[in-house]
Amino acid sequence: MTTTIKDVALQAGCSIKTVSRVINNEPFVSAQTREKVLQAIEALDYAPNFSARRLVTRKSFTIGILLHEAGFYQSAILSRMMDISYQLDYDILLQSYFPSHNRSRVKLAQLIHERRVDGLVITPPCDVDPFLRQLLASADIPQVQITPLNRSRQTAFVSGDDYQGAFLMTEHLINLGHKRIAYLTGPRNHRMSIDRLYGYRAALDTYAIPQDRNLVLDSEFTFAGGYTAAKIMLFSDTPPSAIFAGSDDAALGALFSAQELGWKVPEQLSICGFNDLPQAQQTWPGLTTVSHPISDIVEKATFMLLEILSVRPVKDKQIILPSKLIIRKSTGRVFD
Amino acid sequence: MTTTIKDVALQAGCSIKTVSRVINNEPFVSAQTREKVLQAIEALDYAPNFSARRLVTRKSFTIGILLHEAGFYQSAILSRMMDISYQLDYDILLQSYFPSHNRSRVKLAQLIHERRVDGLVITPPCDVDPFLRQLLASADIPQVQITPLNRSRQTAFVSGDDYQGAFLMTEHLINLGHKRIAYLTGPRNHRMSIDRLYGYRAALDTYAIPQDRNLVLDSEFTFAGGYTAAKIMLFSDTPPSAIFAGSDDAALGALFSAQELGWKVPEQLSICGFNDLPQAQQTWPGLTTVSHPISDIVEKATFMLLEILSVRPVKDKQIILPSKLIIRKSTGRVFD
DNA sequence: TTGTATGCGTTATCAG
DNA sequence: CTGATAACGCATACAA
After folding, report:
1. Cross-chain Cβ contact B83/A96 below 8 Å
2. How confident is the model at residue B12 (pLDDT cuts 50, 70, 90)?
3. How crowded is residue B182: how many other Cβ atoms within 10 Å of its Cβ?
4. How does DSSP assign A6-21, residue by residue?
5. Closest by alpha carbon to A61, among B62, B101, B47?
6. Does B75 contact A80 at a Cβ distance shorter than 8 Å?
C-alpha cells in the first residue's frame, strides 16, 4: 500500500488540495498549516506519484535525446548531457534512432504520439531522415536540433561555426608553408561536412592556392574512413604534405595510417582534424584540431528546449558558436 | 483536444473496454469488432496516453541507468545501451549520480521514491556510495549492478573476470621475458581495480618472480593518472621493462608519457591495459589489452533486469564473463 | 464475446 | 486562506 496525498491530508487534518498546494509551493497557505502538512509528509514518508501528476498536467516532465549510432561524437554529447542532467527539473530519455530499422521508427513514433516526452533534442544525422522529418512536422513537438543540415528560420538549433573553423585550420596550414593540402570530407548530408569543405576551399582561394580535385576525398567521419582515405592519399604519386580530416575520428585514423607506413608526423606529414574530442589531446603527438564546442552546444540546446517548454519567449532560437584553432604537435612546417 | 479511448469506442460503436482489449492484444474479441476498432484507431489517429496507463498499472515502463562521471568506460556502456534500447519495451532514463552533489542525491531519491523507474542498472563506482546503498536498500527497487564492489548473494550483477584477465596479461608479459613489470592500480574501492591487482600478483607468484612493492603504483583509471604514474616510473633509477595499467585510459596515458620521453614502444618498453575500449585499437601502435566484454555485460545486465521485472524466475542472477587477451603491438620481447 | 462501473493519485475549478 | 468535487485517460473486477 503506497501512501497518497489523501493519507497526508488525513494525518495533517486538512484537505488534499491544501496538501497539493504545499507540495507545489503555491501561495495562500498559512505558515501554520504548511508546517503541519510538511510534518505529515515527513512522518508518512510521502512522495507524490509522478504518473498521476503527469496525467493531470498533460506533461511528461521528460525530454528525449535522439541519437544515431554510437560514436565518439555521440559519446561527447551524452557526457555533457549527463553532466547537466542533475540540475534539470526534467528527466532525460535516451532514444536511439536508426533510420534503417523499422522497429526503431515505430518506437520513435510511439514516443512522440503517446507524448512520453515534452520535447526533443535531435542530434545529427537524425535530422536528415525523411521519415523523421515528416513525423516531427506532423506531431509539432517542441524540439531543438544540434548542428542540423537545414537551417530554416523555423528550426531552433545550436551549431558550431564549421566554415570559420575550417578556414582557420586551412589558413594555419598555409602559413606553415603547405600548398598540397588534402581534405577528407564526411557524409554529404552532414551540415558539418559541407560547411567545413567550403571553409577549406575559401581559405585556398583567399591565399590563391589552386584547387586540386584529387586532394579532396569523400570519406566518413570515422576512424576507418580516415584510415582508408589516408592510405589512398599516401600511396599516390603526388602525396599531399598535409591532411586535413573533417573530424577527429578520421584524423586519428589518418594518423594511424601514416604511422603504420612509417611517415613521421609532423616532420614529413601534417595531420589535423576537427571537433577537439578528448582523444585528440590524448593521442601522440597531440592532434592539431578545431574546437567544435560540443559541450556548450549541448548545454545551450538543452536549456533552449527548456525555455521553449516553459513558454517563455525565447531570445535566440538560432545559435552558432565560434570555432577556435587548437594547435598541438601533429602539424608543422612543410618538409622538402 | 486529444483523442481518447472514448472517442475510439464511439467511432467504432463499442465500449471502451473492447477498445482496450484490442489495444492490449487481449483475446476474446471477435475478428469483426477488432477490425472495426482498428479502423477507428486509424481514422482518429489515436494513440493511448502513456501516463494514464502508467498510473493505473502502477508501472513506469522505464528503466534507469545510473552513471558516475563521464569517461570512456561510461561512454562504452551508453553506446551499448543505445544499441539495444530500440528493441526494448522499456524506455531508458539517463541518470547521473555524483555522490558529492547534494542536488544529485535529491534527484535520485525522488526518482526512486516517486517510482519514476521500475528498475535500475547501476554502474561502478556508484554502488560504493553509502547514501546510495542505503537508499536502494530501503526502497527495495529491482536492480542489476555492473561490476559491483560487493558480490553478496543478494545482489544481481554482471561482471568480467578481472582476476583471470590480469593473470593472463601478466603471464603474457612474463613469457616475453619481462621480470620488472610495473602495475598501475585504480581506485581501491573499485572491484575491478582490486581483482586485477590480485591477478597480477598471482601470476608473478606462479612464475616465481619476486614482488617488488615499488613496482605497484596507486593511480587512477584515467588518462591523467596513467600519464603521471608512468612519468614517475620512467624517471626512477630502476625503471620497469613493462607497464601494465589497470585500465586502457591509464595505459593510453602511460603510452603518451613514454612517447613524450622518447622511449620506443614496444622495443624499449612494453605497455598494456585492460578493457579493450575502441581507443586501444585506434592508438598507435595498437594497445595490447584484455577484453572486458562491456557490450555483453551491459546487454546481459539489461536483460537480466527485464527478467526480474517480468517476475519470471531468473536463471542466473550472478554472471561473470570470461576475459580474453588481446595482443596488439604495444608489448614485445624484453630489451637488454 | 461484450459492456458497466469503479479506481488509480494527482491537479484544477470554484464556491465558501 | 481552505475544501468538496470534478476531471485526466486508462485498466480491470464483475456482470451480462
Report:
1. yes
2. confident
3. 27
4. HHHHHHHTS-HHHHHH
5. B62
6. no
Task: Tell which phi-psi region holds residue A147, choosing left (phi > 0), alpha (psi between -120 and 50) or beta.
Answer: left
Q: What share of chain B in percent tops pLDDT 70?
A: 99
**For residue A153, what pLDDT band results from cuts at 50, 70 and 90?**
confident
Considering only CB atoms, B47 lies closest to which of A51, A83, A113, namely: A113
pLDDT digits (tens, 9 = 90+) for B85-138: 888 989 999 999 988 888 889 899 999 988 899 999 999 889 889 999 999 988
Nearest alpha-carbon partner for B277 in B300, B234, B248, B254: B248
Verify cis geometry, omega within 30 degrees of 0, for the bond prior to B239: no
- The pLDDT, as a whole number, for residue A148 is 92
CATH for A62-160+295-322 is 3.40.50.2300
CA–CA separation, A273 vs A289, rounded Å? Answer: 5
Place of cell 622495443: B267
| Whether the predicted pLDDT of A188 surpasses 90 | no
Strand partners, B275: B291
CB atoms within 10 A of CB A89: 8
d(CA A326, CA A172): 10
In chain B, domain spans: 5-48, 62-160+295-322, 162-292
Angle between helices B31-44 and B16-23 (to 10 degrees): 90
Q: How far is the CA of A188 from the C1' of C9 (A)?
A: 51
Q: Is the pLDDT of residue B14 over 90?
A: no
| pLDDT exceeds cutoff 90 at A125 | no
Distance from CA of B313 to the nearest CA of A (A): 24
The two domains A62-160+295-322 and A162-292 share their CATH topology (first three levels equal): yes
> Mutation test of the interface with chain B: which of A58, A91, A102, A269, choosing the one with the most B Cβ atoms within 10 A?
A91
Say if CB B271 and CB B255 are below 8 A apart.
Answer: yes
Is pLDDT at B324 greater than 80 in this prediction? Answer: yes
CATH code for the structural domain at A5-48: 1.10.260.40
Say how far apart CA B313 and CA B324 lie, in whole Å: 31
Give the closest residue to C9 (Cα–C1′).
A52
Q: How far is CA B261 from CA A252, A304, B219, in A?
A: 21, 46, 20
Q: What is the DSSP string of B72-139?
A: HHHHHHHHHHHHHHTT-SSEEEEEE--TT-HHHHHHHHHHHHTT--SEEEE-TTGGG-HHHHHHHHHH
Average pLDDT, chain B: 92
E strand or H helix at A82 = helix A72-85
CATH superfamily, domain at A162-292: Response regulator (3.40.50.2300)
Q: Is B78 on the interface with A (CB under 8 A)?
A: yes
